[in-house]
Amino acid sequence: MPSKSRSVIFVLLTLALIFQIFPTISIPVVDRIYLSTYNGRKFGVFGWCTAKSSECTSPRIGYEILPLNGTTEVASLFLPSRAKRSISKLLIVHPISLFFTFVLWTLALALNMHNFGQSRKILAGAVLWSLLTVLLSLLSFLVDILLFVPYLAWPGWLVLVSTVFIAVASSMMCIIRRAVSLRKYEKLRNRDNVELVPLRFSNVNSNSSKPTASEGVSDTQESAAWQHVAPDQPELVHRAV
């Protein structure tokens, strides 16, 4: 497979990695990036903030309902989709998916090197890892849809684009692995053909020089003579048998 295909895989995974960074660093890590805004609140992966005063909860997994600025939050009106607040703990898949994407990105970088790019084991590992990465990225998007539809902001839609890029890169890795396997198989087959040519000629010469029974050599003596063929001539042993 041309190196251009490996470069395309690296570019796709680089974009996918960047797109998954945005939702992971959303509110309360970065004030201007959020997954959704609803009822005076902005939601991120690790918490939420008020839209007016920008007062935020402490970073944690799962949303907690706290009275900010002297107001009391109503649980039924907390999330845009009316989903249960306990589902917000599933947002942990965002940093997990980001980690898997980063590892896949490093594997794609290694595939652009000649020593690693021709290894079928590394290619097989990259393909299997990419399948897990696709599933985690898709799960991240589904969690965002479940919690924030129809008020999902642009970082959440970037996760969908990232999933598509990873899926395309995974498919291209499968094609590269198949191409490398076929190329190595062709080399082995061509090398075997080159080695078999002199062996066949050797068999012909051995047949012409082998004594026959008409020359006074018995079948028992003939078999005993062929059993003492040197071990470095397997073609003659095979012929004798």
From TrEMBL:
InterPro entries for this protein: pH-response_reg_palI/RIM9, SUR7/Rim9-like_fungi
Keyword terms, alphabetized: Membrane, Transmembrane, Transmembrane helix
GO cellular component: cell division site; growing cell tip; plasma membrane
Keyword Membrane attached: yes
Principal location: membrane
Protein's membrane topology: Multi-pass membrane protein
Cellular localization per UniProt: Membrane
Protein name: KLTH0B04642p
Transmembrane segments annotated in the record for this chain: 91-111, 123-151, 157-180
UniProt source species: Lachancea thermotolerans (strain ATCC 56472 / CBS 6340 / NRRL Y-8284)
